[in-house]
Amino acid sequence: MERSPGEGPSPSPMDQPSAPSDPTDQPPAAHAKLDPGSGGQPAGPGAAGEALAVLTSFGRRLLVLIPVYLAGAVGLSVGFVLFGLALYLGWRRVRDEKERSLRAARQLLDDEEQLTAKTLYMSHRELPAWVSFPDVEKAEWLNKIVAQVWPFLGQYMEKLLAETVAPAVRGSNPHLQTFTFTRVELGEKPLRIIGVKVHPGQRKEQILLDLNISYVGDVQIDVEVKKYFCKAGVKGMQLHGVLRVILEPLIGDLPIVGAVSMFFIRRPTLDINWTGMTNLLDIPGLSSLSDTMIMDSIAAFLVLPNRLLVPLVPDLQDVAQLRSPLPRGIIRIHLLAARGLSSKDKYVKGLIEGKSDPYALVRLGTQTFCSRVIDEELNPQWGETYEVMVHEVPGQEIEVEVFDKDPDKDDFLGRMKLDVGKVLQAGVLDDWFPLQGGQGQVHLRLEWLSLLSDAEKLEQVLQWNRGVSSRPEPPSAAILVVYLDRAQDLPMVTSELYPPQLKKGNKEPNPMVQLSIQDVTQESKAVYSTNCPVWEEAFRFFLQDPQSQELDVQVKDDSRALTLGALTLPLARLLTAPELTLDQWFQLSSSGPNSRLYIKLVMRILYLDSSEICFPTVPGSPGAWDVDSESPQRGSSVDAPPRPCHTTPDSQFGTEHVLRIHVLEAQDLIAKDRFLGGLVKGKSDPYVKLKLAGRSFRSHVVREDLNPRWNEVFEVIVTSVPGQELEVEVFDKDLDKDDFLGRCKVSLTTVLNSGFLDEWLTLEDVPSGRLHLRLERLTPRPTAAELEEVLQVNSLIQTQKSVELAAALLSVYMERAEDLPLRKGTKPPNPYATLTVGDTSHKTKTVSQTSAPVWDESASFLIRKPHTESLELQVRGEGTGLLGSLSLPLSELLVADQLCLDRWFTLSSGQGQVLLRAQLGILVSQHSGVEAHSHSYSHSSSSLSEEPELWGGPPHITSSAPELRQRLTHVDSPLEAPAGPLGQVKLTVWYYSEERKLVSIVHGCRALRQNGRDPPDPYVSLLLLPDKNRGTKRKTSQKKRTLSPEFNERFEWELPLDEALRRKLDVSVKSNSSFMSRERELLGKVQLDLAETDLSQGVARWYDLMDDKDKGSS
């Protein structure tokens, strides 16, 4: 056995040669050595040898003084010398540690048996895996084979590097044309396999091996770039890890095994000893950085989910599936909290003990997530959710590391590890896990999501996800795996295809592919100089809603400046494909006539199958009918149950609320804009992002303001599922990446219970800033008595930047259909239904091969104009087109009992009926002055004059406003005077003192005069006198051929109240005289003196139109 230099027994004093008086000055050359030419006798140190040793020692010390001399010669500070000395000492320390580690590892491998026996009763940590674990076997026979093959492997590596790698490096860059390998030696220390573990019973068509490998080699690889006299290399390295080898598929012919797959389950540990110019990588800081970069390269090639596949037989089927198999499942990790963490922050040089600023790193294989930092807290609450793909069970581990955030180096607080097999066995694992290497516990909830190959439970999953609050991303409903195989006949790269600034000749492209789903983009490798590239790569995406998302594929040249082809694929197409899989050629658009792309797309639905998670009940066809259906007629056992007369939705149907979110303003936001390279500090361009119930909203951007005012209103349909939260984030709009300005969240339960919330919320994760939100729960009411009041109030509180507010909520339950037409007269269709109101649609599931489908699905819609909108229903067959349609005006619901229709409806095709329930609920705001119990229309005109003056702001923010209710009902009183000869215009004019704006709402006109044969095309023009310029002019849209147009359009003028009282509002109703003429026909006008108008009331009134000579107001 070989021994390290420090291992042998110490020589006696008689064996030591004579030495100088100072033993520390003894140079290495003065030690007794064996002279090869002296027959093995030690050469005695003569006078010449001693003199040479003294001169060598003196010369080395003189070389050390040269940097000091040069620093003084050029006038540098002594600080540079001290810095260089510290850098050298640090490099020397790292270097010595690496050499010591290599010597210890080699000694362990050389004397494994002796050291194992010596440490058998001392420490299990020093034992190899085959001693510690009974199911891990020692494979010395395999190590002997590797040792025998090792020299020949070295010859192959030398040939590979010299003939393949070196030419590729020289061709990659003109500066590396003189690159060459000057030395390639794998050394005498081969790779060792410490233990082998076989996993039985996984799958019959595969063999699963785990090899615990350890390489502590004296490898030496030197490279040189002669042009720049640059030399670098590696001399010695360590690599330790668990390599999984999968032999599959097993076949009934030689060589029995079809392919071999190899990968590291976890990132292996790596330690490299550099030489030459790469010695700089041993400097503290650069050492760990270089090793990390190399490990990232190895991970991108050989660490899960990446793997190396070696086919052993030709024409192997499903190579892509073997190279990138589907995940075994998905684990949803809820990082909830931690408790009892150790305090790491110290103040006043350790005299005062602080707390910690903890954050957590969650890791599974190459998938890593970092939580937010909780300042000054030993019991942090994170409440974050991550989703990871699990590829191998057993083997992979969930690892959570907790750190204390510091300005320099973060302090370690502890870690925990858990095998994913335990999560698979439990389904849902919710527990506190102790932290190793520190103190405290971390609270995790782990959910195993199975992968379903059909879309039957997709609606159930989506419905559940809508009620789950998840940060930083919403929960996923499915995953998509894209196998990118190849392309054919891509267009050649010509100079005409490039922009003018890029001069390119005609050549074959270097194609690469970008795949995008929403804001997630992944890129393939580039294949050079071919228009028929082969990629054979796999990409994985999480999907929030497969019914509405699309996969965008862009084939580009590697410069990204030229697009060679494009493809957009709606993922809803996969939902109807067999096993949610498409495997085919796709024609590329914006490309050549024969350009196409071969890809395989596999979707899987994520389903949590656990008794602890209860999905909302979905009614089924059996037992969902009337009581009579449970006891069929006794005459025959095959008698069909009677047809139901009404729908039977579950108890949750129609219980939704509408949450009205009013984003008002913010204060004290942090400034993110910098100019002139950061020398000049600017402000921010803030906007707000809202997330709730699976929907996202975004406000407009306010430029250059740290105290912005948005005044926008958003509405979202919500349920009473507990645990939902409104997530609010503020960002600074930039050209590249928007800067984070803070976040806050509001529990939806609090708003649903109280009904109203008006608060300033402090922004989290930023030094300063707060946000003003006003939240109101609107509960639908099954009565149309207050609809007109709601419409009037909505027009008053409507903000300029917001969409029109909803006046009602429509809930539709689609139960079934019958007697649908057959395909080609004989085959039953695969029907599904689409429900549409305005620009919002809902698609039901597809029921296979039946003319009497049962859907049992519900949908809700926000209704802004119940009098004019309608519910559009279409029943379609998959691949057969339209089977029937139905249009239900919502005005029919307004006159129905309880605003509800529940019956069979005949489709317009004449064949087929659908059973559905449609119910309308009026959204009455309790904080806008409308009260449900006030329906009186007999208020006298004196009630208007008795109201107190309300100059403090708009009506919707007053605390007690019965006056507004009286005003609204008074306006629509049947005692109003009839219209004049020219007709009337309905206006609301009031002053919004909070925003210093004059607001006018043009509701509509009635009984306009018809001068010609055809009705006019009216519009309304407003002018704020005495100014007649474009700055004060406003105009509505034009309505075609009507004498009673409805506009409901809002206009604003920014000016002080005293100035508004000095103005007059000129309102003109006009019509185009002809198609070719620019002349406008005046139908009538009215002029309002704002000094004589009560601008505090916001009353909608009808005004008689006059001709141009008489412009007084009514």
Automatic annotation (TrEMBL):
Q: Does the keyword Calcium apply?
A: yes
How does it sit in the bilayer? Answer: Peripheral membrane protein; Multi-pass membrane protein
Compartments annotated for it: namely: Cell membrane; Endoplasmic reticulum membrane
Pfam families, from UniProt? C2, SMP_LBD
Supply the name of the protein.
Extended synaptotagmin-1
Keyword Nucleotide-binding found: no
How does the record describe its quaternary structure? Interacts with ESYT2 and ESYT3. Interacts with ADGRD1; inhibiting the G-protein-coupled receptor activity of ADGRD1. Interaction with ADGRD1 is abolished when cytosolic calcium increases, relieving ADGRD1 G-protein-coupled receptor activity. Interacts (phosphorylated form) with SLC2A4.
**Which residue ranges does the record assign to the SMP-LTD domain?**
135-313
Query: Biased-composition ranges for Gly residues?
Result: 37-46
Question: What is the organism lineage in this UniProt record?
Answer: Eukaryota, Metazoa, Chordata, Craniata, Vertebrata
Segments passing through the bilayer: 62-91, 245-265
